[in-house]
Automatic annotation (TrEMBL):
Protein family per UniProt: Belongs to the class-IV pyridoxal-phosphate-dependent aminotransferase family.
Protein name: branched-chain-amino-acid transaminase
Keywords of the record: Amino-acid biosynthesis, Aminotransferase, Branched-chain amino acid biosynthesis, Pyridoxal phosphate, Transferase
Source organism superkingdom: Eukaryota
Span of the entire protein shown here: 42 to 409 of 437
Length: 368
C-alpha cells in the first residue's frame, strides 16, 4: 500500500535498445518538432498499483482506448527543455530541476500523480545518453526534450484519471531563427484571452494551447507572426505566442529598467524568464522589476522615446525581439536593436548560450 504513494525509482529502470536506428536528418535544415530520436522513456501509473518501473525502449506509437480521458478532456501536460552539445563535447541540460518542479505542479493541477523529479532526471539522462548521437553538433542546435503526461483512463466521465502515462521523447532542433535574432510582429487583440484569474494559464497543460491555434491563424491573416496576449480592461501584456514577455526601457523616473509581468497566476513560470531576471539582478546595471505592463505604458514609453527593447523569452527561441504591434487598428512600431550592435536582448542571448554550450562554467548547466 505504501508503494502506491511512492515515486518511481531510477534504480528500477529497464533499458531495451532499439534494433533499428533512424536515419539522421540534415543538421542544418532542422524544422522544430519534425525529427525524433530512436528511443523513448515510458512510466505507467495506476491508482491501484502506483508507479510502475521506468522503461526505455524504441520510440513507438501509444495505444489508447478511444474513451481515454486525454482524448476527450485534454488531461495532458508537458515540458520542454534542451540538451546541448558543448564546445568541449560534453552534453548539458539547462536548469532541468526547474522543469521537474513545474511538471509536478502541472500534474497536481491536472489531478495526475506527482513523482520525484530527481528520479525522472536520472532516467532522462540515460535516455539522452542512449540517443546521444541525436544531439546535434551544429552551433545553436540542440536536442529538444519533451516530457509528457497523459490521463489514459479508458472511461468517459469527467473525473480524475485513474491511469496515467508519463513519457519522454526527444528530437534534434536547429536555431529558432537561423539568421540571428529576427524581430517579429504581433497581433494584440484584447478580444482574445489566453489566461485569466483562476484559469490554468500558469501550468504547462496542452489545454492552454489548443485555443490559441485559431488566434495564431488570425494573426497570420493580418500579417503578423505571433499573438500578443492581453488581459483586463487596461490591456495588460501577459505573454507573446508561447513565450514570456519583457520590456527594457527608461522608466518614468529616468532609470533603465527591465520589466516583466509578475507570476500572478496568468503567466507561465518560464525557465528563461526566471534566468533573465536572475542574470539581470546579478549584473546589477539596471533596475529589474516584476510588475504589470499595460498597452498604455508601452504607447507612452514609445511616444516619450523611453522604450528601448521589447522581446519574448522562452526555451524554443531563447530571445525573440518584437518590432511591431497591431493593436486596435493601430500599427505600432517598436524600436529594435541594430543588428550586430549592443543590446540587452543580445547580451541575454549570448550569456545564456555561453552557459548552455559550456563556454562559461555555471551551476545552471548540468552534465547528463
Ligand atoms: C517555448 O519554449 O517557447 C515553448 O513554450 C515551446 C512550445 C513549442 C510550446
Amino acid at each position: 500500500a505504501a508503494r502506491k504513494h511512492q515515486s518511481f525509482k531510477y534504480d528500477d529502470l529497464e533499458i531495451v535498445q532499439s534494433k533499428k536506428l533512424g536515419k539522421k536528418p540534415d543538421w542544418n535544415k532542422l524544422v522544430f518538432g519534425h525529427n525524433f530520436s530512436d528511443h523513448m522513456l515510458s512510466i505507467p501509473w495506476s491508482e491501484t498499483k502506483g508507479w510502475d518501473a521506468p522503461r526505455i525502449g524504441p520510440l513507438k506509437n501509444i495505444e489508447l482506448h478511444p474513451a481515454a480521458k486525454v482524448l476527450h478532456y485534454a488531461i495532458e501536460l508537458f515540458e520542454g527543455l534542451k540538451a546541448y552539445r558543448g564546445v568541449d563535447g560534453r552534453i548539458r541540460l539547462f536548469r532541468p530541476d526547474q522543469n521537474m518542479k513545474r511538471m509536478n505542479s502541472s500534474a497536481r493541477r491536472s489531478g495526475l500523480p506527482e513523482f520525484d523529479g530527481n528520479e525522472l532526471l536520472r532516467c532522462m539522462a540515460q535516455l539522452i545518453e542512449l540517443d546521444s548521437s541525436w544531439v546535434p553538433q551544429s552551433p545553436e542546435s540542440s536536442l529538444y526534450i519533451r516530457p509528457t503526461m497523459i490521463g489514459n483512463d479508458p472511461t468517459l466521465g469527467v473525473s480524475r484519471s485513474k491511469e496515467c502515462l508519463l513519457y519522454v521523447i526527444s528530437g534534434p532542433v536547429g536555431p529558432y531563427f537561423p539568421t540571428g535574432l529576427k524581430p517579429v510582429s504581433l497581433l494584440a487583440d484584447p478580444s482574445f484571452v489566453r489566461s485569466w484569474p483562476g484559469s490554468a494559464g500558469a501550468f504547462k497543460m496542452g489545454s492552454n494551447y489548443a485555443p490559441t491555434i485559431l488566434v495564431g491563424k488570425e494573426a497570420e491573416k493580418q500579417g503578423c507572426q505571433q499573438v500578443l496576449w492581453l488581459y483586463g480592461e487596461d490591456h495588460q501584456l501577459t505573454e507573446v505566442g508561447t513565450m514570456n514577455i519583457a520590456a527594457y526601457w527608461t522608466n518614468e523616473n529616468g532609470e533603465k529598467e527591465l520589466v516583466t509581468p509578475p507570476l500572478n497566476g496568468l503567466i507561465l513560470p518560464g525557465v528563461t524568464r526566471t534566468s533573465l531576471l536572475e542574470l539581470a539582478r546579478e549584473w546589477g546595471v539596471f533596475k529589474v522589476t516584476e510588475k504589470n505592463i499595460t498597452m498604455k505604458d508601452i504607447i507612452k514609453s514609445i511616444k516619450e522615446k523611453r522604450l528601448i527593447e521589447l522581446f519574448g523569452a522562452g526555451t524554443a527561441c531563447v530571445i525573440c525581439p518584437i518590432s511591431r504591434l497591431l493593436y486596435l487598428g493601430r500599427d505600432i512600431h517598436i524600436p529594435v536593436p541594430v543588428e550586430g550592435g549592443d543590446s540587452v536582448s543580445r547580451r541575454f542571448y549570448n550569456e545564456l548560450l555561453d552557459i548552455q554550450y559550456g563556454r562559461k562554467a555555471h551551476p545552471w548547466a548540468v552534465d547528463i
